[in-house]
């Protein structure tokens, strides 16, 4: 059924995971007889303990957009904005028009796994007079030696992640969100991404990135007992503010891939950079994609089979005091530059209950000696507090803004 196919590897939802439960939904916006395909009819519920778009299987299309509040807009305007945005997201994710003046771009299509996820950046709290309720977890990320960050494409007061398995449905949602911002907020930056289309492979598989690697294997699984604790703020708010209960922190990095350099490497060299085989994602010490890597094994030459600077070795939670994050990226490609190099890479998005126990320690270690570093460049960065899901009749962020 739809649920099995949609629960593609890498982000498979365990039974009872509580979010992103799939249900075939009829689409009131589709016209004519006949049923939608499973891609079109798949709906991800807007309401829930957690916002959709975190444990939801990777979608084929994504838009990331950051807004800054308009000069003079404060808490009242922000609350009204989140109310409008939530209403639009609720109807669009059910496959219905966003409201009066709908552009019609998504007509005929079903929900197509649309998710719209909202977050707050550090600067939001000063602008709305809410600094006292700003989570410590939003303190700026440390500088990393390999950073090449463009501040104009980084951070922002508000962040919206849109994902859908249909490009038109995703674009429709992006325009509706922009329109609903009205006079309250303006776009700061916007990025477009993609993943493999559902059904492109004979069976659901972990996605590949633009370097050709199977990417997502080591992700924590919702079926693991410590998954919720690692990814989501506990129901009582934990050590942070209570309004973040059921929420998560998103670290967003635009990571350019230096593909001309990467593609010059022989396959064996590429595999040593990660520590896994390109063909099937298995560790270089053997087995299948899901076999545990043998990090201590040496080869006939006496060297470690998985080199000491291999990306998957350095980033593994066991090497980082258990630091874990859920990586849920989109690839991007924004054309080929005047110098002939593609502006392409990974819109790296990782989710965790606390960035200081997820992204930061791992990136610190990668920064000191990851074999992948010569082939990537971090060009933009954002850190956002993504509150828990809205209950029925509630809007996202209401517990902060009301
Ligand atoms: C693992 C690629 C950036 C954290 C992997 C794997 C690949 C990969 C191919 C092995 C398969 C897997 O477990 O998913 C990339 C590429 C990157 C990138 C191409 C940049 C363009 C990052 C960054 C972080 C990170 C910035 C965090 C700071 C991890 C983690 C694992 C991993 C935690 C899983 C390790 C494990 O549990 O075994 N990455 N990665 N990666 N990566 Fe990255």
TrEMBL record:
<dbReference type="GO" id="GO:0005829">
    <property type="term" value="C:cytosol"/>
</dbReference>
<dbReference type="GO" id="GO:0033212">
    <property type="term" value="P:iron import into cell"/>
</dbReference>
<dbReference type="GO" id="GO:0030313">
    <property type="term" value="C:cell envelope"/>
</dbReference>
<keyword id="KW-0575">Peroxidase</keyword>
<feature type="domain" description="Dyp-type peroxidase C-terminal">
    <location>
        <begin position="206"/>
        <end position="390"/>
    </location>
</feature>
<dbReference type="Pfam" id="PF04261">
    <property type="entry name" value="Dyp_perox_N"/>
</dbReference>
<dbReference type="InterPro" id="IPR006311">
    <property type="entry name" value="TAT_signal"/>
</dbReference>
<dbReference type="GO" id="GO:0004325">
    <property type="term" value="F:ferrochelatase activity"/>
</dbReference>
<comment type="function">
    <text>Involved in the recovery of exogenous heme iron. Extracts iron from heme while preserving the protoporphyrin ring intact.</text>
</comment>
<dbReference type="GO" id="GO:0046872">
    <property type="term" value="F:metal ion binding"/>
</dbReference>
<feature type="region of interest" description="Disordered">
    <location>
        <begin position="273"/>
        <end position="300"/>
    </location>
</feature>
<dbReference type="GO" id="GO:0004601">
    <property type="term" value="F:peroxidase activity"/>
</dbReference>
<keyword id="KW-0560">Oxidoreductase</keyword>
<keyword id="KW-0479">Metal-binding</keyword>
<comment type="similarity">
    <text>Belongs to the DyP-type peroxidase family.</text>
</comment>
<keyword id="KW-0456">Lyase</keyword>
<keyword id="KW-0732">Signal</keyword>
<keyword id="KW-0349">Heme</keyword>
<dbReference type="Pfam" id="PF20628">
    <property type="entry name" value="Dyp_perox_C"/>
</dbReference>
<dbReference type="InterPro" id="IPR006313">
    <property type="entry name" value="EfeB/EfeN"/>
</dbReference>
<dbReference type="GO" id="GO:0020037">
    <property type="term" value="F:heme binding"/>
</dbReference>
<dbReference type="InterPro" id="IPR048327">
    <property type="entry name" value="Dyp_perox_N"/>
</dbReference>
<keyword id="KW-0408">Iron</keyword>
<dbReference type="InterPro" id="IPR011008">
    <property type="entry name" value="Dimeric_a/b-barrel"/>
</dbReference>
<protein>
    <recommendedName>
        <fullName>Deferrochelatase</fullName>
        <ecNumber>1.11.1.-</ecNumber>
    </recommendedName>
</protein>
<dbReference type="InterPro" id="IPR006314">
    <property type="entry name" value="Dyp_peroxidase"/>
</dbReference>
<feature type="domain" description="Dyp-type peroxidase N-terminal">
    <location>
        <begin position="51"/>
        <end position="195"/>
    </location>
</feature>
<dbReference type="InterPro" id="IPR048328">
    <property type="entry name" value="Dyp_perox_C"/>
</dbReference>
């Amino acid at each position: 059924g739809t649920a099995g196919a949609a629960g593609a590897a890498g982000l498979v939802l365990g039974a009872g995971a509580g979010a992103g439960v799939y249900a075939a939904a009829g689409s009131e916006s589709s016209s004519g007889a006949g049923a939608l395909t499973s891609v079109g009819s798949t709906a991800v519920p807007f309401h829930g303990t957690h916002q959709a778009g975190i444990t939801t299987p990777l979608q084929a299309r994504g838009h990331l957009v950051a807004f800054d509040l308009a000069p003079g807009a404060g808490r009242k305007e922000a609350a009204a904005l989140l109310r409008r945005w939530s209403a639009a997201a609720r109807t669009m994710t059910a496959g219905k028009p966003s409201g009066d003046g709908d552009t019609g771009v998504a007509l005929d299509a079903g929900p197509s796994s649309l998710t719209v996820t909202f977050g707050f950046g550090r600067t939001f709290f000063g602008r709305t007079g809410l600094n006292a309720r700003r989570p410590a977890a939003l303190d700026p990320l440390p500088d990393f030696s390999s950073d090449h960050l463009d501040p104009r494409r980084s951070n922002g007061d508000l962040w919206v992640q849109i994902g859908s398995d249909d490009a038109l449905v995703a674009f429709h949602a992006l325009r509706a969100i922009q329109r609903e911002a009205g006079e309250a907020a303006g776009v700061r930056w916007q990025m477009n991404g993609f993943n493999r289309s559902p059904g492109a492979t004979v069976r659901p598989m972990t996605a590949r990135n633009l370097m050709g690697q199977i990417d997502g294997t080591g992700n924590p699984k919702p079926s693991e007992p410590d998954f919720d604790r690692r990814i989501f703020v506990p129901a009582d708010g934990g050590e942070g503010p209570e309004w973040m209960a059921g929420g998560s922190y998103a670290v967003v990095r635009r990571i350019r891939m230096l593909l001309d350099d990467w593609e010059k490497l022989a396959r064996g060299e590429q595999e040593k950079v990660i520590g896994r085989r390109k063909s099937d994602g298995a560790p270089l010490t053997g087995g299948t994609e899901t076999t545990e890597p043998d990090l201590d094994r040496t080869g006939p030459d006496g060297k470690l089979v998985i080199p000491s600077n291999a990306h998957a070795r350095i980033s593994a939670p066991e090497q980082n005091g258990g630091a874990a994050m859920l990586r849920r990226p989109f690839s991007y490609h924004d054309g080929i530059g005047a110098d002939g190099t593609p502006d392409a890479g990974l819109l790296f998005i990782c989710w965790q209950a606390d960035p200081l126990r997820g992204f930061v320690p791992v990136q610190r270690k990668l920064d000191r000696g990851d074999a992948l570093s010569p082939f990537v460049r971090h060009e933009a960065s954002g850190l956002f507090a993504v509150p828990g899901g809205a209950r029925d009749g509630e809007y996202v962020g209401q517990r902060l803004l009301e």
